[in-house]
Amino acid sequence: EVSTDDPEMAFCTLANRKELNPEEDSVHHCLYQFTRNETLTETNKLLCDVCTQRHCGPKNNISEKKCVYTNAKKQMLISLAPPILTLHLKRFQQAGFNLQKVNRHIKFPEVIDLAPFCTAKCKNVAEGNTKVLYSLYGVVEHSGTMRSGHYTAYVKMRAVNNHLSDLVLRGQSQASETEPVKGQWFHISDTQVQPVSVSKVLSSQAYLLFYERLL
């Protein structure tokens, strides 16, 4: 969503990003990199309609050669915090002419705060809130190579989250919890289901992460 009504707020977030200092090989670092402020210069300059019209006059008199391009800043931030947050980790990289699977462990928390990655005017966050918290409830893990492998899942069995239901059905919630949703974790592989500890879950090589909104 492009907003020009308040340019001063365009690059402001709900929480201070400068205090993050995210750890390498972590989901926080991935989100920080994905939402970083970028400068568009040289061949990446932005076509500026205002500058072009100021230079050439009305739009119907503008040819492609007369278009004015200018340096600009770009940043992607979350403008609407979802009830369910799904994070898909890119677990492949280019190795010569082939794709290679990335097997290293990416750290992810049981509770994650999206506030440093949300716009200051995030639509469904109450005014004054500086936290947007999510609790982990599911992980998909892949073992094997790019050509073959096996998918397994970790799922938390937990009580009904009434605050999440309010958010899904009515777009609002009065939630105040800041701790992980209580429940028992299970590892599922085909027809095999067994209980596991949260430490086992957090040490997995996540491919997909599923979080539910707390606050």
TrEMBL record:
Coiled coil segments of this chain: none
Signal sequence residues: none
Domain USP positions: 1-214
CDD domains: Peptidase_C19K
Gene3D superfamilies: Cysteine proteinases
One MF annotation (Gene Ontology) recorded for this entry: cysteine-type deubiquitinase activity
InterPro entries: Papain-like_cys_pep_sf (IPR038765), Peptidase_C19 (IPR050164), Peptidase_C19_UCH (IPR001394), USP (IPR028889), USP_CS (IPR018200)
CC annotations in GO: cytosol; nucleus
Keyword line: Hydrolase
Biological process (GO), any one: protein deubiquitination
Pfam families from the UniProt entry: UCH
Protein name as it appears in the record: UBP16 hydrolase
Gene: Usp16_1
